[in-house]
Amino acid sequence: QVQLVESGGGLVQAGGSLRLSCAFSGGTFSSYRMGWSRQAPGKERAFVATINWSGDRLYYDDSVKGRFTISRDNAKNTVYLRMNSLKPEDTAVYYCNAQRGGNNYWGQGTQVTVSS
Question: 90 — phi, psi (to 5°)?
């Protein structure tokens, strides 16, 4: 069974940076497309970024383009989300997901709070 564990969230001032990590276990990491989504208070979960198995195809929501970078290390079974120039509106619980075929797995989430 695939398991995902996010870490790296916290409280940061506007303009600051954080790097989220998501550790993958229970499967062949390199065969999964990985992604990040977020859910702000009172809102639905929303797409943030995704990366293909080899790391050469990256997609971002317009709201984070130029500020966030998704990457993966297939040797470490880990996907990252580097977040720069953080804004208060980036405050949310950030979730990692692993997708292959019809299967989509989610982590438990990590809280990111950006103060103004």
Answer: -80, -5
Report pLDDT digits (tens) over 64-76: 999 999 999 999 9
Strand partners, 39: 93
User: What pLDDT does residue 84 have?
Assistant: 98
- Using alpha carbons, select from 65, 50, 58, 46 the residue that is nearest to residue 100: 50
E strands present in the chain: 3-7, 10-13, 18-25, 33-39, 46-51, 58-60, 68-73, 78-83, 92-100, 103-106, 110-115
Q: CA 79 to CA 105: how far, in whole Å?
A: 14
Cα–Cα distance for residue pair 84/10, rounded to 1 Å:
14
